[in-house]
Amino acid sequence: MNAQDMSITHLILNASWVVQAVMVILVVGSIASWATIFKKSMLLKDARKLNGEFEEDFWSGASLNDLYTAAVQNARTSGPLERMFANGMREFHKLRERQIHNANTLLDGSRRAMMASFNREMDALENGLSFLGTVGSIAPYVGLFGTVWGIMHAFTGFAGMEQISLATVAPGIAEALVATAMGLFTAIPAVVAYNRFSRDVDRTAIRMETFGDEFTNILQRNLGATQSPSGH
């Protein structure tokens, strides 16, 4: 036995087909997991940035109508918070155009529109998290299955040998343990990313729910004072 015989490449190429199949599954899972991680990271980063920019504009003193006009014009590049605001204002204006002046009806309509938008935004932000959670949960067990199968295959090959030494046992055990290592390599980044992204999504949800309540309060005050959402 030489060093080349114990290299990772040699162990993978000489593993049984079942262990190799397990390794392929883990490699594909790892690639898909990392692709999801990068995509989700960019999505949440953009959402935080755009939400922050819109909140600054919202609390700068600009009128609700001006903010709504800007939100409609920037519909393709706006963030989750701005889209939720735009949906709320759109429903508010539609009800006013139908000559509905009851404050409770106007507020309920706006609130429902924002809630529907909030649910859509949360669904988009949470998309992919279940995949990361699944990879993080099952990848170690997939790797363990490959290890158990590899060890069984290795010991089956020793059945006809009269003398067994470490030199004959080591390659079979080593190639089996590679599957466990690959399972952990696939699972650990997925679990870390899942926990981090779940925390970020929860924070975004709280931020949007808080904004929705504040915006509803502003509409209520404006309705009570002037019956017009012209400013806040």
From TrEMBL:
It is found in: Cell inner membrane; Cell membrane. Residues 79-209 form the MotA/TolQ/ExbB proton channel domain. GO terms for cellular component: plasma membrane. It is a multi-pass membrane protein. The keyword Amino-acid biosynthesis does not apply. The chain crosses the membrane at residues 17-38, 129-152, 172-194. Keywords: Cell cycle, Cell division, Cell inner membrane, Cell membrane, Membrane, Transmembrane, Transmembrane helix. InterPro entries: ExbB/TolQ_transport, MotA_ExbB_proton_chnl, Tol-Pal_TolQ. GO terms for biological process: bacteriocin transport; cell division; protein import. HAMAP family: TolQ (MF_02202). NCBIfam families: tolQ (TIGR02796). Part of the Tol-Pal system, which plays a role in outer membrane invagination during cell division and is important for maintaining outer membrane integrity. Belongs to the ExbB/TolQ family. The Tol-Pal system is composed of five core proteins: the inner membrane proteins TolA, TolQ and TolR, the periplasmic protein TolB and the outer membrane protein Pal. They form a network linking the inner and outer membranes and the peptidoglycan layer. This is Tol-Pal system protein TolQ. It comes from Lampropedia puyangensis.
